[in-house]
Amino acid sequence: MTQATKLYPIGIQTFSEIINKNYLYIDKTEHVYHMTHSASKYMFLSRPRRFGKSLLTSTLKAYFEGRRELFRGLALERLETEWTEYPVLRFDMSTAKHVDKERLESELNLKLVEYENVYGRGDSNIRLTKLIRHVYEQTGRQAVVLIDEYDAPLLDVVHEEKNLPVLRNIMRNFYSPLKACDPYLRFVFLTGITKFSQLSIFSELNNIQNISMLPEYAAICGITVEEMATQMDEDLDILAGRMGISREETVQKLKYNYDGYHFTWPSPDIYNPFSLLNAFVTGRLDSYWFGSGTPTYLIEMLRKYGVLPSKIGGNEAMAEEFDAPTERMASITP
Q: 223-224 and 143-148 as β-strands: parallel, antiparallel, unpaired?
């Protein structure tokens, strides 16, 4: 493929679109296989924004829908032998950012109505429970529930004593039915940036597995140095040519600007995918991730704990320190 026709999925988070339109796809489907064939059927993954969480969720959706044709040539095609189709309920909570109580309730209502129009509606106070049971009764198969950015409605109010409890209670009521629906569920997956322990998803659904810092899932999002060297081999040569430097120099510059993410130990070197792909599109290096939107939540946390830019880095922390609940943090580490 020539540079003129090379397609990079900047901002595209739908797996089927990336595959059908021949965008570059870094194969993460071996992780999908291991996730869906593990002992746990409830999983949570925390990663920074614009790091591929939504694409992973979309990939899981395509897999559980039995869309085998989308996985041709990928690891999952070789690993999977059954390709059973399941009904999938996917809820994208990123549409509920910067909302008050009324708008949050309206957003959740719209998300439920989309599926209730297909499977039927239950009582207003247990709608998700009824929906999941209706799915099971009508299809004869357990439902798959995928919740992307589960914490999005709460991040903007995490510092507000008045609004946080109100919105958190709404989200608690929305998530709480999942535990009672266990017999009707095949798989439940949530993504987010933080871990709110006082949401029912973590306090009631106490068998949820947090895979965020497990070594086997260290590279589930982002682009590893090995993936860049193999699956983006031609891309590196093209970028080097556009920048007018050698391939080795290009690799070093990319490493200096976009490497440095490690989510567990041991962990491969992981590159920020949003910045890395933007660099290949534009042919130059820039602060693409930070420039895509100010991470308000992070800035507020840095202010709360009085962290100065000059003091960032060079600190050691125990792994368990990163798992502190968001609303009970005692340091900036998590």
A: unpaired
